Amino acid sequence: MSPKAQNRPIRRPFKRVLADLAGVGYLAVWLVAVGAIGLILRDRLQVAEYTGLAQGSRYHVSATIPGRIDQLHVELYDRVFAGQLVATLEDDQVMAKLNVAKAKLDLSRTELKKAHYDVVDGVGAWQGEMRRFAMDEAQWRLEALAMQVALETDRVELEKVHRVVERLRSRHVEGYATDAELDAAVLEEKRLRKQIAGHEKQLRQTQANRRDAGDRLKGFVGNLSMDGDPTTIVMAPLQVAIEVEEARLEEIRVERRKLILRAPVAGKVSQVLGRAGQSLRVGESVVLIDQGVASEVVAYLPESQSRNAQVSQPVQISRSSDPTTVADSLVLRISPTIEPIPERLWPTPDRPIFGRPIVLAPSATLPLLPGEKVQVRLLSTTQ
Fold it and tell me: Which of 101, 104, 138 is nearest to 119 (CA)?
């Protein structure tokens, strides 16, 4: 090739130049279209991010009567089932009230015997028969009440022995209780159960006798007028006293049941607030039980953005520890007020901030632990 030819500029065919320009034009068109779509989506779909905390259901096991803790039957982080024994209160007050009830029953028996001599003798035959029927009915009523008091005393003792058996069984598995200790406690429990069963059978028979005596009295009296009858005058105070003691016994039964504190739900013991020997007020918590699964998420909108959320608005949630795993949710409820945001969510420890809480639905695809920190993306689609 000659030197002149080497210095000649390279010429491209005109058609090829046009083709190249057309390719650049197509690319520019596509870039413009993508940019326009991005602008449209940006205008139509706005994303705001906030932080929140997963919340779980927490249950307080608390005393419904004043008393003193006798024994705790669970420890921190123990798993419990619904109805499981959590703690027991000392029964000294209930036992004292049962002793008072026994003393009053003895007094009523004495008054019943005295009533036989206080009724005026020499009345008509029908009045004498009615007096005998009334005394008979009152006698069976007192006997039934005495048996119920004895049964309540036995049941208190059985509950104590049963707790001993359960504790010894646990210690026996761990090797801290002997076979002899466990066998003795089990035998005592069986003895008490057999004794209670016998007393319950006697009580049923006594109550049947009382009903029969009452029916005989009603059948005898019929339509006779009781006004001014000496039997009625003498027996009325005693009948009222028996009714009072029956009501008092039912009150003691209710109080005895309240000595036993049980788990209201299945879960784990998250806090132990009481200890053996501690005095409790009504409503004072002994342990707290958490179910271990978040039932909702509470996010906090900054005060300047407190009106950004609406009920049923779509939301995306993710763990702060793993923001790559995202789940869909929605706004369930919105607080009507601005409140202090939990200290854990403050940007700096010494600067409290305020916001508006919103409650979000849990997601089955993203199980959260109560207290877990959550990132919340509030999606707002405009028309």
Answer: 138
